[in-house]
Amino acid sequence: MKNEVFRAYDIRGVYGKDIVEEDARLIGLAFATHLGGEGKTIAVGWDVRRSSNSLATALIEGITSAGANVLKIGLVPTPLVYFAVAHRMLDGGVVVTASHNPPEWNGFKLCRERARLCGIGSGLEKVKKIIDEKSWKTTSKGVVKNIGDEILREYEEYLLKIFGDRLSGIRILIDPGNGSCSKISTKILQKFGLVVDSINDCPDGNFPSRSPEPTEESLTVLREMVKENGYDLGVGYDGDCDRALFVDDEGNVIRGDVMLALFIKHFLKNRPGEKIVYEVSCSKLVDEVCKENGVIPIMSRVGHTFILEKMLSEKARFGGEISSHLYFGEIYGLDDAIFATLQVAELLTLTRRRLSQLVEELPKYESFKKNYDVPDEIKFQVINDLTSFFKEAGHKIITLDGVRVELEEGWFILRASNTLPQVKLTAEAKSRESLDKIVYYAEKKFKETLVKYVSKL
Question: Which of 105, 235, 255, 454 has the most crowded CB, counting CB atoms within 10 A?
């Protein structure tokens, strides 16, 4: 197998080029061996991509060859596999998915007990070593059981215990983007009395309607329809439905860290000592709202692997990423787009305010975000060099994930993407003038560093 498909918290590459069925079988063998093999139980689900079913079949063959049993959930949103592992206290789970990547990509999200992702530093390097050394163990085959309908029923019952029927009347327009929660999310949300309409709501692994990644641009149609037709909110899901990007009643996209701030302000008011988890590129808005309400903010590296660990160890109520992964203590600390949708509906029910009004009441910061294409083989070295430069320049830096530079008038962070050949820049300041200066400085140093490596490629 190619080394580059093993990323920080999953396995991901282009199907037919980087990943094929034999790789899937070996991943199943190695992962099941890593978990203990014979007698262990592993949940398996997959997304809508055209290659996912065949990769899942090969994966299951590998898992059962190591003696582990498989609970096959089928084509479902990623959070349902996580829920199955946590709720049924299984030994692990695998989702065949490339999440928000383009249609030609595919991959595997591996998780251990309590749906803790098996990433680099938390087991994935051991799975890779088993494959490299061919040290997997085979025994009598495990059994496969189909439990898709059972898990969906258990999931719905679990959510009903939390939200009940108090959300009636909220009007929502959803855009599953032809991804894994197409059809499923509409049916679930309607069970809570929500008035739900949808677009791009038919599963299709070619993603014909828009990119599997929900962005301000890809949700243009959703945004216009929400504003023109008087919906209370809109929401766009990513390809495997662990991410929800919300749109307010005026058609404005709400970043994940802003939504996290709303949860803190309205659900944790008068609850000092509660904890939340946020990642290194989130706005200072999160810190500010936490301080106002006596809530303890805990900074984390980007990604499910790291945030879920903090959610569980700190017993946090909420967690969030700027990319709109939102995590909830009430559902085993997981990031779940459908749960997030219900939580926002509850926010509107609780406050009896428009979503745009709630956002307007938050402190304001000017922000900038841009992704730069940088080959996988140099992106981390570029960040290492930048870290050394900013440290030697005397800046206050945070190196939890990439390099975050704290300046008097604001801050910026440069970090390598763990899923794509990119370096990401996020910057923030109280004024547009200060933000422009910060972005100019960050981009200048980034490009000066990058050019040293590009000339050698």
Answer: 235
Contact 40, 69 (CB under 8 A): yes
Cα-to-chain-centroid distance, residue 147: 24
Q: Give the DSSP H or E segment for 396.
A: strand 396-398
Q: Specify the pLDDT at position 456.
A: 60
206 shares its domain with 325: yes
DSSP character at residue 230: T
What tokens appear for 205 in the block?
A: 């692994």
What integer pLDDT is reported at residue 455 of this predicted model?
67
How far apart, in whole angstroms, are the C-alpha atoms of residue 210 and residue 175? Answer: 10
C-alpha distances out from residue 457 to 358, 374, 444, 453, Å: 49, 11, 21, 7
H helix runs in 275-375, sequence order: 284-293, 304-314, 337-351, 355-360
For the annotated catalytic residues, the residue numbers are 99
Which tokens in the block code for residue 223? 């945004």
Domain boundary pick from 117, 148, 179: 148
pTM of the model: 0.92
Which residues have C-beta within 8 Å of that of residue 15, sequence separation ≥ 6? 49, 51, 55, 104, 105, 106
Tell me how many domains the chain contains. 3
Q: Are residues 241 and 178 in the same domain?
A: yes
CA distance 172 to 183: 15
CATH of the domain at 376: 3.30.310.50
Confirm whether 158 is domain-assigned. no
237: which residues sit within 8 A by CB, 6+ positions away?
A: 174, 175, 176, 177, 179, 181, 185, 214, 243, 244, 245, 337
* Residue ranges of the chain whose pLDDT lies below 70: 455-457
